[in-house]
Amino acid sequence: MRLLFLGDVMGRAGRAAITERLAKLRTDWRLDFVVVNGENATNGAGLSADHAKTLLDAGADVLTLGDHAFDQKDMLQFAEAEPRIIRPLNFSKTAPGRGARVFNAPGGRKVLVAQVLGQVFMKRPFDDPFSAIEPVLKAAPLGVQVNAALVDMHCEATSEKMAMGHWCDGRASVVVGTHTHVPTADAMILPRGTAYLTDAGMCGDYNSVIGMDKAEPMNRFITGMPKARFTPANGPATLSGLFVRTDDATGRALEVTMVRDGGALQAAAPGTTGAGGATTPT
After folding, report:
1. Which tens digit of pLDDT belongs to each residue from 183-204?
2. Digit-coded pLDDT (tens) for 29-43
3. Strands of 100-105's sheet, edge to edge?
4. Which residues are catalytic?
5. 195 within 8 A of 171, measured Cβ to Cβ
6. Is the pTM of this model over 0.90?
7. Phi, psi of 235 (to 5 degrees)
8. What is the helix (H) or strand (E) element at residue 216, kind and residue range?
9. By three-state DSSP, how is residue 166 classified?
10. N or C: fewer beta carbons within 10 Å in the chain?
C-alpha cells in the first residue's frame, strides 16, 4: 500500500497548498491512502468544521488533530458526526469523537489510524499515551485485522516520540511525530518493520516562526512582552510529511521517503526531485 502522511496544516497558506497540490500528488505518486494532521488549519489554532471539509474534499482520507483539537468549538459536534476525524486517544475520557478507527482503502484493504498525545513539556497533563495505544494495536493486528496501521504521535519531546516508535515497532506500519512544526531528518524503518519519523513538520509557510508571521514571536523573544496577536504567515507553503510503501500481507514498511513539496523548504531525501522540489517516491 502507498501511504502519505502530511504534517500540521498551518493556517490559510497550508490549506491552500493542500487544496492546490494534494490531488496531483495522489495521482502522480499513485497513493492509496492519505492522512493529514489538520489541527492548526484554522488561524493556527484548531480546525473548524468548514476547513475540515475543505481538506477532506481536497483529497485527505483522514484528518488527525492534536492538543488544539477543540479550540474551534464547532469541532465538538463535527468530530462526533464525521468518522474521518481522529482526535487524540488520551485527550480526555469525555472528549467527543474517536481516537482510533479502521478505514477502508482501495482493493478491500483496511487501514488503522490512531493518534496519541505525549506528556513531556506539554501545557496540560494527558493520560499515558503508551497504555492508550496498547489495546488499539492489540485489537487490530497487522496482517490479520488490518493491512496497515498509522500512529500520529503528537508531542514536544523527540525522546518521547522515539520511544513510541520503538514501542510500536512491528505492530504499526508507521509512527510519525507531529506538533513542533519543524521537520526532522531521521526517516527510517525500525528493526521490526515500522516506518518512523520524529516530526513530519508543517504544511505552511517556512519563512516564519513555526508558521506564525515572524514579527510578533521575535518581539516576544526580545522584549518578553506581547505587542500583538500571533497571526499565521501567508507566503508560499511547503507540504511536509512522509511517504511510506508497505507490504499488504504483513503491514511492514518497505520504503520510507520524506516529503518536501514546494515553498521554501526543499527535500534532501533519496529519490528524484520533481517540479516544486517534491521528492518523488519510487
Report:
1. 999 999 999 999 999 999 999 9
2. 999 999 999 999 999
3. 100-105, 109-117, 148-154, 174-178, 195-197, 188-189
4. 68
5. no
6. yes
7. -80, -175
8. helix 215-223
9. helix
10. C
C-alpha cell at 58: 481536497
CA–CA separation, 173 and 250 (whole Å): 9
By DSSP bridging, strand 2-6 and strand 239-246 are: antiparallel
Q: Which amino acid is at 5?
A: F
**Strand-strand pairing, 148-154 and 109-117:** parallel
C-alpha cell at 162: 522515539
The number of angstroms, rounded, from the C-alpha of 177 to the middle of its chain's C-alpha atoms is: 7
Q: CA triplet 145, 150, 152: central angle to 5 degrees?
A: 140
Task: Give the separation between CA 55 and CA 39, rounded to whole angstroms.
Answer: 11
C-alpha separations of 19 from 24, 52, 129, 203, 209 in Å = 10, 12, 32, 12, 23
Give the E-state strand segments of the chain in sequence order.
2-6, 8-9, 33-37, 62-64, 85-86, 100-105, 109-117, 148-154, 174-178, 188-189, 195-197, 202-203, 239-246, 253-261, 272-273, 279-280
How far apart are alpha carbons 86 and 97 in whole angstroms? 7
Q: How far is the CA of 209 from the CAs of 100, 129, 154, 277, in angstroms?
A: 31, 28, 19, 21
Amino acid at the residue 117: L
Give CA–CA dist 72/272, Å, rounded: 39
Q: How far apart are CA 42 and CA 53, in angstroms?
A: 12
- Given the candidates 2.30.30.90, 3.40.50.200, 3.60.21.10, 3.40.1190.20, the CATH classification of the domain at 2-207+236-280 is 3.60.21.10
